[in-house]
Amino acid sequence: MSMRPKNLARKTGINLVPILIYIGVAVVVAAGMYAWDMKYRRDEEARRRPPSPEVIAKNLVENIVGSDTVRDVKVDQEKKAVTVTFDSVLFKPGKPKKDLRELMEAEATLATQAVLMQMREYGQVNAVLVNQGKTLAVAEAVRGKDKISITFVDERLKD
Asked: Is the pTM of this model over 0.85?
C-alpha cells in the first residue's frame, strides 16, 4: 500500500476532503443563521403588532376599576360597540340606596368614558356591573353624549 495521494490530489497536490468538510460546515452554519433570522423577524413582527380590541378595553377598564375585575369583553366590529362586564368594587350592600346608585353610576361613567376616549373607532360602550355573579346595573355610553344611560337591574338598587 502506498501513502501517495490518488487522482486529483496526486496531480494537483490539493486534498479535497478538508475543503468539502469546510464547505459543508459553512452551508450548515449559514442555513442555521438564516432560520434564526427568519424566526427573529417573525417574533419581532408579532411583538410589535398592537393588542386586540378586547385586551385594550379590558386593560382600560381595569385601570379605572381595579385589577382582575373584568369578567368578559365583547367587541362588535359591525356595530362599532364594546361591551364590558366587570365586578363593581364600589357596591357595598349596607350603604343607602341613593349612595349606591351614585357610586355605581360614577363607576360606570369612568369605565365607559375611558374606553370611548382611547378607542376612537368605537361609538358605543356598554358596561355590565356585576357582584357575585349577579347583574347590578347596565350602563350605555354613546360617543357625543355627555351623560351615560344606566339601568339598575338589582332589586337593592331599584327605586
From this structure: no
